[in-house]
Amino acid sequence: MKIYLCSEVVRDLDFADQCRFARDIGYDGLEIAPFTLSDAPQNRSVKDLRALRAIADGEGVAVAGLHWLLAAPQGLSITSTDPSVAEKTRDVGKFLVDMCRELGGHYLVHGSPLQRPLEPGLEAEGRRQGIAYFAAMAEASSQAGVRYILEPLSRDDTAFINTVDDALAIIDEVGSAALGTMIDSYAAISNGENLPDLLQRWIPKGAISHVHFNDDNKRGPGEGTTDFGAVVELLRQLDYNGTTAVEPFIYSPDGPSCAARSIGYLRGLMERSR
């Protein structure tokens, strides 16, 4: 099972140091948050992106994919009823699909709760706009040879796509194999779902493309009360061969320390479950 580090955890390091750090402490590579590369990631040139890929390749580190997609530039929303906002958001999304390909990634995780709100009284139209956005991303991802993954999030963060069922309903409506879904540990637990039951239900059906590891207190895995030993063992028993990434939201005492503790904890659990 491959474990990647979400790059915002070590955003204070330059990209080469992020790669070296992730490699040296035991990650298989990075899952990049585009806003950590630029306040306007859509303006990065192909030459710039290929230079970043060369750095990662030179350090022996894979860029697995992208996540936290629409935090920059400001003002994006997949559910906006403003045509200009919708168009700009689609344009940025399509660029990020191309960015993923140029960096050597294989997937994009669409979380970005602040960029998918459902405004009171406009919920139906917001959902329609969101589904249209995902249809556009499915087409772009199919052409680029990457997968666009819909991330169910906590109901505390958004009302649009909270469960795997929600995501699969949209995937079925769009009808594209380029779309997928995933499980975020914190989001599932926050929504009152049992994490092992969720994995047991969906992984055998081939529905899960990715897993984010974070604990029930938003810290790194092993820093809360979640039984990740049971989770790792279940992933092994289910022969899960998808990707995973460590995505804490609270770093204690700092990002690098949190990243190191998380991978040490997970690698230890993996060794024990063999």
Rg, alpha carbons: 18 Å
Average pLDDT for all residues: 97
- Quick one: CATH superfamily? Divalent-metal-dependent TIM barrel enzymes
Structural class: alpha/beta
Order of helices and strands: EHEHEHEHEHEHHEHEH
Order of strands across the main sheet: 1-2-3-4-5-6-7-8
How many domain units?
1
What's the level 1 CATH class? Alpha Beta
Sheet bearing the most strands, described? 8 strands, parallel, barrel
**How large is the share of residues in beta strands?**
5-15%
Q: Please provide the count of β strands.
A: 8
CATH topology-level name: TIM Barrel
Q: How many separate helices?
A: 9
For the record, the CATH architecture stands as Alpha-Beta Barrel
Shape: globular
The helix content is 40-55%
Distance between the termini: 12 Å
Given as residue ranges, the uncertain stretches (5+ residues, pLDDT < 50) are none
What's the short version?
It contains nine helices and eight strands. The chain is an alpha/beta fold and 274 residues long.
